Amino acid sequence: MIGSVEDDVLLLEEPNDNVYVNLRHTKDFQFVTVNTFSTTSSKVFLIDAANPLSGLTLIWECEGQAHCIVEHHRGILYLFTDASKDGQSVDHHYLLRSPLSTSGPRIWENVFVLEEDSVVEDVDFSDKYLALIIREGKNFRICSVTLPLPVGKGELNLKELNPQFLPLPQSVTQISPGPNYDFCSTTMRFTISSPVMPDAVVDYDLSNGTWNIIQQQNLLHERTRILYGTASSGRINQKLSSLIDVESDNNPWNELSEFYGWEHYDVPSHDGVMVPLTIVYSHSHRKENSNPGLLHGHGAYGELLDKRWRSELKSLLDRGWVIAYADVRGGGGRGKKWHHDGRSAKKQNAIEDYIASARFLMDKGIVKEDKLAGWGYSAGGLLVASAINQRPDLFRAAILKVPFLDPTNTLLYPILPLIAADYEEFGYPGDVDDFNAIRRYSPYDNIPKDTVFPAVLVTSSFSTRFGVWEAAKWAARVRERTIYDPECPVLLNLTTDIVEENRYLHCKESALETAFLLKVVGS
């Protein structure tokens, strides 16, 4: 609160605790947008930035919770949303437009016609160009078209606008736009992510198609070639003096596909739904029915599973490990239905998807039986722990990082941080049906008795974001109920640092996790 409140003017009041309000401005700074959304409805209001006391103008309203981003460009409003179309839920975003000034009811029209199996994942506006992140099947692309777009012609065929594409590696699994604050600039910044390439921060000039990698981790290709025995003696002598790679024309993206491969599979779950599974492995160490594996999972909040290259996993890859990522239901990437089918009373679907992915890895000989470990962070810890409860025979070890292990009790205390938002994701224990559903999948309430449990490293923090008692009581109960095996310890670490910017502590924790896996599972 700045200054006196006597002259303040009330523009919007939302007394309902279940309704969220979000404010942002359009990139041209002409308008302020106010988004209000709940599980039942979503609205977008517009405020003239030059005259904010003129009040709010409702420009969009739809049933259900929808993601809505509004931009303004030279008298045209653009809406990027995943709201239902004609009463039917959609599994992707799309772009709409409408004139700013309208005499009658506002009409929004679809902007682009795309080819089948192509969707717009994200958009970014500048004064002269529109950048689109497009997913074609499993491949991601960035293209740009010139603004303003033609009007009065109905839906536009993207091909007819002569889009300019940025050449990308086929292994790209995620593209994230940067802040791109300068609306008048022709250059936009993106982060390109891949399972076999360190994140590349790219400046892309939309006016001429040129691009430049301005930041990317250097993983010393020549040193890795020496490790794998693929470097010639002349190159070894030449490179050892500097240990710095020079970017070559045939590998401008600094891809690591020379050493590591990646593959994508569709795994049938218990109900026939196909679950995406991505694996990363070392070319020289992959052998059928012999490799250990680490299976990542999350499956909550509609969030994408992070499949970016992680340097801390290089040590495991170089020892023959297969790193796998299961995009189970409850997560993102396949729209709202995919998220809804793995949350609350349907959380068991996500657990079954994860178990199916684990079985697939062993049935196909990708990972050796009794050599599979699970890895889950936060809500992903709930997923992995629940899968272990139901199928402890599938896993040799697991790492549960600040896991959510006791939803039955934790959700009963609304004073705890973030609990109110978790009711929609995990269920409301005040409802009898939801309470019974939570009890059925809760890791703490379903620990099997008199069973040999996998080795587990469970870590937590005294941060207020996480309940440190959950990890402690879960570890104690596992030790109490399961059969003791000195080769399968249940270890508890309560000194985890969750500040992502503290890279030194992050390295220390990654080293602990790697040492645990190598000790328990081997290489």
UniProtKB/TrEMBL annotation:
Alphabetical keyword list: Hydrolase, Protease, Serine protease
The EC number(s) this enzyme carries: 3.4.21.-
GO MF terms held by the record: serine-type endopeptidase activity
InterPro entries in the record: AB_hydrolase_fold, Pept_S9A_N, Peptidase_S9_cat, Peptidase_S9A, Serine_Peptidase_S9A
Keyword Protease appears in the UniProt entry: yes
A Gene Ontology biological process term: proteolysis
Top EC category: hydrolase
Pfam families recorded: Peptidase_S9, Peptidase_S9_N
Tree of life domain: Eukaryota
Domain Peptidase S9A N-terminal: 6-216
Domain Peptidase S9 prolyl oligopeptidase catalytic stretches: 311-481
Family the UniProt entry places it in: Belongs to the peptidase S9A family.
Biological function: Serine peptidase whose precise substrate specificity remains unclear. Does not cleave peptides after a arginine or lysine residue. Regulates trans-Golgi network morphology and sorting by regulating the membrane binding of the AP-1 complex. May play a role in the regulation of synaptic vesicle exocytosis.
PANTHER family per UniProt: PROLYL ENDOPEPTIDASE-LIKE, PROTEASE FAMILY S9A OLIGOPEPTIDASE
Protein name: Prolyl endopeptidase
Species of the source: Punica granatum
Lineage: Eukaryota, Viridiplantae, Streptophyta, Embryophyta, Tracheophyta
